[in-house]
Amino acid sequence: MTYATEFHGFDLGGITIPDGFEDTSHHNNAMPSFWHTPTRLMIWADWLNPAERDNGPNYGRFMLMQYKDDAAADPDHTIYSGDDWSEATRRATIRVLIQDAIPTDYENDWGSDRQIAADCAAYDALTEMGITDAFFDARGKHTCEEIAADTLAWVTEQESE
Question: Fewer Cβ atoms within 10 A, N terminus or C terminus of the chain?
Fold first, then answer.
């Protein structure tokens, strides 16, 4: 299933879905959706014409939502809702970069290649937000989990301001 087969006549309007997001659109949903499994993020894209939007013309075209488990459950929270595609994808990209900092092996990995990669992913995410000073606070952390958790906290705090 794709948005093109499930939502006949739907126009993405020239936007490009970010790498790693799978088209999970289904005609039973109100609008097309794109799922990123590792981060449990869903991007919803409503109709280009505000008059055709499921929630009405006063609602944003794009929603980025975080889910606790899978896309079948209710979302944990909405990260972004609005008409700015670049903002929706920027916020998604930041969370994908943070996810890259979380290791598959949760043992103490200080100094390992994985920990160095976590440092790089955290720095990339914070650079995207323009808050690289926060990165240096994370340098004293001992595991990728701690680095990723602090980075996500800083990003979320910045977005809520």
Answer: C
